[in-house]
Amino acid sequence: MAENIPVGSTTAGSIAVAAESTVATRMSAPPSFDVADFPVPHGREEEWRFTPLERLRGLHDGTAAATGEGVRVDVTAPDAVTVETVGRDDTRLGRAGKPVDRVAAQAYTSFEKATVVTVPKEAALSEPVRIAVHGQGGTAFGHLVVELGAFAEAVVVLDHTGDAVLAANVEYVLGDGAKLTVVSVQDWGDKAVHVAQHNALVGRDASFKSVVVTFGGDLVRVHPRVAYAGTGGEAELFGLYFTDAGQHQEHRLLVDHNTPHCTSNVVYKGALQGESAHAVWIGDVLIQAAAEGTDTYEMNRNLVLTDGARVDSVPNLEIETGEIAGAGHASATGRFDDEQLFYLMARGIPETEARRLVVRGFFAELVQQIGLADVEARLIEKIEAELEASV
């Protein structure tokens, strides 16, 4: 469907760029909870070189302050789940990982109250935990912790809507043998700015699945990160994004294989349409010297629907040990496959409908990873609405 582009090459014009960097996992400052430990970015830093800083509304330079009503957070959870609002002195905060850039540190030093969702050990939830984050205008800083006890099982839906300027940190802490699926939906209004770091700490023999879905917003930058607290951990990171004219959507991932005999699989797919639509995908996998027996793969695919859109796709793989089970990555960006369109049209399907079928098929495997009928139906409706705008 999509044309393969060798890593390190550039397509004609500004349609897409795929490149590889061996320094993408090297940030400009060490991880820290203190915003003062991070220099104000100027756009030349590795972690900021694709981000239009002027559209961050001051989140990156300290000029942003909490204003207006910010966001409203509503949690709906089964009876077995504990939901708490805590202060920054709660010892459960920060265990999954430290902020790795200035905006994440700004969020950590600026939030007033954090939300902690706890699933007790051995509890297997029959209904998902739903966390609705609704923007009500203004600027806000947030912090969320989702913790699963040993051998617990849960599905969490983190749903962002409305308009706001939001910087937030999200932590997922999985006990040994736990299984967590998280669906994070960024369905913001047109003016929203959302910058978030998601840290997952995966326990021994635990399984973590993340599905990140991004449609709305003026600028959305999500930074999922995974580390392992014991052997046998599994992580699956899936993503789906549809970038419209003028939107900047950026997904930066790091899977840190710091423990032996763990696995990871990363698959992100995006579609773009409209003038100045810009999608950025950075996929970093680090296999440390101690992480023998690692098995990992990452892939990014992008479908460009119109002229004027741009993709930056950068897969990175750093390996510090030769004793691994497997490691690989791939990136491809292209337009519609003319042969597929011809095949469908030759069977009497109009071109407009044929294009829709190709896009639906492109996203189908990722939508099915969600596993919640109502969320899947909503996302299919969003894809249909986006396609209506492109024909």
TrEMBL record:
Organism: Streptomyces fradiae ATCC 10745 = DSM 40063
NCBIfam families associated with the record: sufD
InterPro entries the record matches: Fe-S_cluster_assembly_SufBD, SUF_FeS_clus_asmbl_SufBD_core, SUF_FeS_clus_asmbl_SufBD_sf, SUF_FeS_clus_asmbl_SufD
Similarity field: Belongs to the iron-sulfur cluster assembly SufBD family.
UniProt protein name: FeS cluster assembly protein SufD
A biological process from GO: iron-sulfur cluster assembly
Pfam families, per database record: SUFBD_core (PF01458)
Source species, domain of life: Bacteria
PANTHER family assigned to the protein according to its UniProt record, in alphabetical order: PROTEIN ABCI7, CHLOROPLASTIC
Domain SUF system FeS cluster assembly SufBD core, chain residue ranges per copy: 135-362
